[in-house]
Amino acid sequence: MTHERPSAESGPPIARRMMLSMLGAGAAGLAAAPLVRDGWERLLETASQNDPTGLSGLLPNPGGFRYYSVAAAVPRKSAADYRLEIGGLVERPGTYTLDGLRALPQTRVVGEARCTDGWRVPDVPFSGVLLSHLLDAAGVRPEGKAVRFTCFDGVYSESLTLEQARRADVLVALDMLDAPVTHAHGGPVRLYVAPMYFYKSAKWLSGISVTDQVVPGYWEEYGYDVDGWLDPAA
Ligand SMILES: Nc1nc2c(c(=O)[nH]1)N[C@H]1C(S)=C(S)[C@@H](COP(=O)(O)O)O[C@H]1N2
Ligand SMILES: [Mo]
Protein backbone atom coordinates (compact mmCIF):
# COMPACT_ATOMS: atom_id res chain seq x y z
CA MET A 1 0.00 0.00 0.00
CA THR A 2 1.49 3.31 -0.99
CA HIS A 3 1.31 6.51 1.01
CA GLU A 4 -1.48 8.11 -0.95
CA ARG A 5 -4.07 10.40 0.45
CA PRO A 6 -7.04 11.98 -1.24
CA SER A 7 -4.96 14.33 -3.35
CA ALA A 8 -4.93 18.07 -2.94
CA GLU A 9 -5.16 20.47 -5.88
CA SER A 10 -2.05 20.25 -8.00
CA GLY A 11 0.50 22.70 -6.74
CA PRO A 12 1.44 26.12 -7.93
CA PRO A 13 3.61 26.04 -11.06
CA ILE A 14 6.60 27.41 -9.20
CA ALA A 15 6.67 24.44 -6.84
CA ARG A 16 6.41 22.00 -9.72
CA ARG A 17 9.20 23.71 -11.64
CA MET A 18 11.33 23.60 -8.54
CA MET A 19 10.68 19.88 -8.13
CA LEU A 20 11.67 19.14 -11.68
CA SER A 21 14.84 21.16 -11.42
CA MET A 22 15.69 19.41 -8.19
CA LEU A 23 15.18 16.01 -9.76
CA GLY A 24 17.64 17.05 -12.46
CA ALA A 25 20.11 18.50 -10.00
CA GLY A 26 19.89 15.39 -7.87
CA ALA A 27 20.82 13.04 -10.65
CA ALA A 28 23.66 15.26 -11.78
CA GLY A 29 24.91 15.76 -8.25
CA LEU A 30 24.92 12.06 -7.50
CA ALA A 31 26.89 11.32 -10.63
CA ALA A 32 29.38 14.12 -10.12
CA ALA A 33 30.44 14.01 -6.52
CA PRO A 34 29.90 12.33 -3.20
CA LEU A 35 27.31 14.22 -1.23
CA VAL A 36 27.38 15.32 2.32
CA ARG A 37 24.57 13.29 3.80
CA ASP A 38 23.04 15.97 5.93
CA GLY A 39 23.17 18.47 3.08
CA TRP A 40 21.26 16.07 0.90
CA GLU A 41 18.70 15.47 3.60
CA ARG A 42 18.13 19.21 3.84
CA LEU A 43 17.58 19.37 0.10
CA LEU A 44 15.08 16.54 0.33
CA GLU A 45 13.22 18.30 3.10
CA THR A 46 13.11 21.53 1.13
CA ALA A 47 11.88 19.70 -1.94
CA SER A 48 9.25 17.90 0.07
CA GLN A 49 8.00 21.08 1.70
CA ASN A 50 7.38 22.62 -1.73
CA ASP A 51 5.94 19.48 -3.15
CA PRO A 52 2.18 19.06 -3.14
CA THR A 53 2.54 16.17 -5.60
CA GLY A 54 4.58 13.92 -3.30
CA LEU A 55 7.16 13.48 -6.04
CA SER A 56 10.02 14.28 -3.70
CA GLY A 57 9.58 10.79 -2.25
CA LEU A 58 11.13 9.61 -5.50
CA LEU A 59 14.34 11.55 -5.01
CA PRO A 60 17.27 9.26 -4.34
CA ASN A 61 18.90 9.33 -0.93
CA PRO A 62 22.33 7.76 -0.53
CA GLY A 63 21.28 5.72 2.51
CA GLY A 64 18.37 4.08 0.69
CA PHE A 65 15.85 5.87 2.87
CA ARG A 66 13.20 8.19 1.54
CA TYR A 67 12.27 11.36 3.34
CA TYR A 68 8.68 11.19 4.52
CA SER A 69 6.64 13.79 6.26
CA VAL A 70 2.90 14.24 6.05
CA ALA A 71 3.41 17.77 7.41
CA ALA A 72 4.62 20.39 4.96
CA ALA A 73 7.13 21.91 7.32
CA VAL A 74 8.45 20.58 10.59
CA PRO A 75 10.04 22.85 13.19
CA ARG A 76 13.56 22.04 14.30
CA LYS A 77 14.04 21.20 17.95
CA SER A 78 17.45 21.64 19.52
CA ALA A 79 18.72 19.77 22.54
CA ALA A 80 17.73 22.84 24.56
CA ASP A 81 14.10 23.09 23.48
CA TYR A 82 13.14 19.47 22.91
CA ARG A 83 10.62 17.95 25.34
CA LEU A 84 8.94 14.56 25.54
CA GLU A 85 5.76 14.41 27.56
CA ILE A 86 4.43 11.23 29.12
CA GLY A 87 0.91 11.19 30.41
CA GLY A 88 -2.54 9.70 30.12
CA LEU A 89 -3.37 6.72 32.30
CA VAL A 90 -0.17 6.78 34.36
CA GLU A 91 0.58 7.38 38.03
CA ARG A 92 3.38 9.86 37.40
CA PRO A 93 3.03 12.01 34.28
CA GLY A 94 6.25 13.76 33.40
CA THR A 95 8.42 15.57 30.92
CA TYR A 96 11.84 14.53 29.68
CA THR A 97 14.51 16.73 28.19
CA LEU A 98 16.92 15.32 25.64
CA ASP A 99 19.67 15.24 28.28
CA GLY A 100 17.28 13.45 30.61
CA LEU A 101 16.66 10.76 28.00
CA ARG A 102 20.41 10.46 27.26
CA ALA A 103 21.06 9.93 30.97
CA LEU A 104 18.85 6.81 31.05
CA PRO A 105 20.11 3.32 30.17
CA GLN A 106 20.56 3.07 26.40
CA THR A 107 19.63 0.03 24.33
CA ARG A 108 20.78 -0.68 20.77
CA VAL A 109 18.52 -2.49 18.33
CA VAL A 110 19.59 -3.35 14.77
CA GLY A 111 16.67 -3.90 12.47
CA GLU A 112 15.02 -3.28 9.18
CA ALA A 113 13.40 -0.10 7.96
CA ARG A 114 10.70 -1.27 5.59
CA CYS A 115 8.16 1.08 4.10
CA THR A 116 4.88 -0.02 2.61
CA ASP A 117 5.93 1.90 -0.52
CA GLY A 118 8.33 -0.91 -1.43
CA TRP A 119 11.72 0.28 -0.23
CA ARG A 120 13.62 -1.26 2.63
CA VAL A 121 16.94 -0.74 4.35
CA PRO A 122 18.33 -3.73 6.25
CA ASP A 123 20.44 -3.71 9.42
CA VAL A 124 19.82 -0.18 10.60
CA PRO A 125 21.17 0.48 14.09
CA PHE A 126 18.96 2.49 16.42
CA SER A 127 19.65 3.26 20.05
CA GLY A 128 17.87 4.97 22.83
CA VAL A 129 15.61 4.26 25.76
CA LEU A 130 13.35 1.24 25.85
CA LEU A 131 9.76 2.43 25.69
CA SER A 132 9.00 -0.12 28.43
CA HIS A 133 11.47 1.69 30.70
CA LEU A 134 9.61 5.01 30.28
CA LEU A 135 6.26 3.29 30.83
CA ASP A 136 7.51 1.63 33.99
CA ALA A 137 8.94 4.91 35.25
CA ALA A 138 5.58 6.59 34.69
CA GLY A 139 3.62 3.69 36.23
CA VAL A 140 0.86 2.49 33.90
CA ARG A 141 -2.50 2.42 35.66
CA PRO A 142 -4.58 -0.78 35.51
CA GLU A 143 -7.01 0.81 32.99
CA GLY A 144 -4.10 1.48 30.60
CA LYS A 145 -4.28 -0.83 27.59
CA ALA A 146 -2.54 1.01 24.74
CA VAL A 147 -0.13 3.82 23.95
CA ARG A 148 -0.68 6.79 21.69
CA PHE A 149 2.24 8.72 20.19
CA THR A 150 2.09 12.31 19.01
CA CYS A 151 4.65 14.35 17.12
CA PHE A 152 5.84 17.95 17.07
CA ASP A 153 5.08 18.15 13.36
CA GLY A 154 1.56 18.68 14.71
CA VAL A 155 -0.02 16.07 12.43
CA TYR A 156 1.31 12.54 12.70
CA SER A 157 0.30 10.05 15.33
CA GLU A 158 0.79 6.37 16.00
CA SER A 159 -0.33 3.72 18.45
CA LEU A 160 0.66 0.41 19.96
CA THR A 161 -1.04 -1.95 22.35
CA LEU A 162 0.58 -1.99 25.76
CA GLU A 163 1.89 -5.48 25.08
CA GLN A 164 3.53 -4.35 21.84
CA ALA A 165 4.88 -1.23 23.52
CA ARG A 166 6.61 -3.31 26.19
CA ARG A 167 8.63 -5.36 23.70
CA ALA A 168 12.41 -5.35 23.99
CA ASP A 169 12.76 -4.15 20.37
CA VAL A 170 10.67 -1.00 20.70
CA LEU A 171 12.72 2.10 21.37
CA VAL A 172 12.43 5.78 21.92
CA ALA A 173 15.42 6.31 19.65
CA LEU A 174 17.97 9.08 20.11
CA ASP A 175 20.48 7.62 17.66
CA MET A 176 20.01 6.15 14.22
CA LEU A 177 22.91 4.86 12.14
CA ASP A 178 25.07 5.34 15.26
CA ALA A 179 24.69 9.12 15.26
CA PRO A 180 22.06 11.45 16.70
CA VAL A 181 18.80 11.11 14.75
CA THR A 182 18.89 13.85 12.11
CA HIS A 183 16.00 16.24 11.66
CA ALA A 184 15.06 14.55 8.38
CA HIS A 185 14.85 11.17 10.09
CA GLY A 186 12.68 12.55 12.89
CA GLY A 187 15.24 13.88 15.33
CA PRO A 188 16.06 14.62 17.93
CA VAL A 189 13.81 11.74 19.04
CA ARG A 190 11.79 9.23 17.04
CA LEU A 191 10.15 5.95 17.80
CA TYR A 192 11.63 2.72 16.44
CA VAL A 193 9.30 -0.28 16.34
CA ALA A 194 11.62 -2.93 14.91
CA PRO A 195 9.10 -5.72 14.19
CA MET A 196 6.68 -3.50 12.30
CA TYR A 197 6.48 -1.48 9.11
CA PHE A 198 8.34 1.79 9.33
CA TYR A 199 5.15 3.87 9.42
CA LYS A 200 4.79 2.74 13.03
CA SER A 201 8.11 4.45 13.85
CA ALA A 202 6.80 7.96 14.46
CA LYS A 203 9.31 10.72 13.76
CA TRP A 204 9.63 13.95 15.79
CA LEU A 205 8.16 12.23 18.84
CA SER A 206 6.82 14.65 21.43
CA GLY A 207 4.09 12.84 23.32
CA ILE A 208 3.46 9.41 24.79
CA SER A 209 0.04 8.91 26.28
CA VAL A 210 -1.36 5.75 27.84
CA THR A 211 -4.94 5.15 26.72
CA ASP A 212 -7.65 2.63 27.55
CA GLN A 213 -7.82 1.41 23.94
CA VAL A 214 -5.85 1.70 20.71
CA VAL A 215 -6.43 5.02 18.97
CA PRO A 216 -5.64 4.47 15.27
CA GLY A 217 -2.73 6.56 14.00
CA TYR A 218 -2.42 8.85 10.99
CA TRP A 219 -2.05 6.23 8.25
CA GLU A 220 -4.34 3.86 10.06
CA GLU A 221 -7.14 6.36 9.46
CA TYR A 222 -6.42 5.78 5.75
CA GLY A 223 -6.72 2.03 6.00
CA TYR A 224 -3.31 0.85 7.18
CA ASP A 225 -3.18 -2.09 9.52
CA VAL A 226 -3.09 -0.94 13.13
CA ASP A 227 -0.82 -3.94 13.78
CA GLY A 228 1.89 -3.29 11.23
CA TRP A 229 3.78 -6.56 11.69
CA LEU A 230 6.52 -7.24 9.14
CA ASP A 231 6.12 -10.94 9.74
CA PRO A 232 2.56 -11.68 10.85
CA ALA A 233 3.48 -15.29 11.63
CA ALA A 234 6.17 -14.35 14.14
N1 LIG B 1 5.98 12.29 12.17
C1 LIG B 1 6.03 11.42 11.12
N2 LIG B 1 6.56 10.20 11.34
C2 LIG B 1 6.64 9.31 10.31
C3 LIG B 1 6.14 9.62 9.02
C4 LIG B 1 5.59 10.93 8.83
O1 LIG B 1 5.15 11.30 7.73
N3 LIG B 1 5.57 11.80 9.91
N4 LIG B 1 6.19 8.71 8.02
C5 LIG B 1 6.34 7.30 8.41
C6 LIG B 1 6.69 6.46 7.28
S1 LIG B 1 5.43 6.01 6.25
C7 LIG B 1 7.94 5.98 7.10
S2 LIG B 1 8.30 4.88 5.89
C8 LIG B 1 9.06 6.44 7.96
C9 LIG B 1 10.13 7.09 7.12
O2 LIG B 1 11.22 7.42 7.91
P1 LIG B 1 12.45 8.21 7.27
O3 LIG B 1 11.92 9.54 6.80
O4 LIG B 1 13.47 8.30 8.37
O5 LIG B 1 12.95 7.38 6.09
O6 LIG B 1 8.66 7.37 8.94
C10 LIG B 1 7.38 7.12 9.51
N5 LIG B 1 7.18 8.08 10.57
MO1 LIG C 1 6.36 4.40 4.88
Fold and architecture overview:
- InterPro entries: OxRdtase_Mopterin-bd_dom, OxRdtase_Mopterin-bd_sf.
- It comes from Nonomuraea jabiensis.
- This is DMSO/TMAO reductase YedYZ molybdopterin-dependent catalytic subunit.
- It holds the Pfam family Oxidored_molyb.
- Residues 72-219 form the Oxidoreductase molybdopterin-binding domain.
- With 234 residues, the protein is of the alpha+beta class.
- The chain folds into 2 domains: 13-64, no CATH class; 84-222, Sulfite Oxidase, Chain A, domain 2 (Alpha-Beta Complex), CATH 3.90.420.10.
- It has 5 helices and 10 strands, in the order H-H-E-E-H-E-E-H-E-E-H-E-E-E-E.
- Strands 2-1-10-5-6 form a 5-stranded mixed beta sheet. Strands 3, 4, 7, 8 and 9 form a 5-stranded antiparallel beta sheet that branches.
- The protein is globular.
- The two termini are 21 Å apart.
- Bound molecules: ligand MTE and molybdenum atom.
- Ligand MTE is lined by residues 3, 65-70, 115, 151, 153, 156, 185-186, 198-199, 201-204.
The major β-sheet equals: 5 strands, mixed
* Order of neighbouring strands in the sheet with most strands: 2-1-10-5-6
Give the tally of β-strands. 10
Bound molecules: ligand MTE, molybdenum atom
Ranges where pLDDT stays below 50 over 5 or more residues in a row are 7-34
Give the number of domains.
2
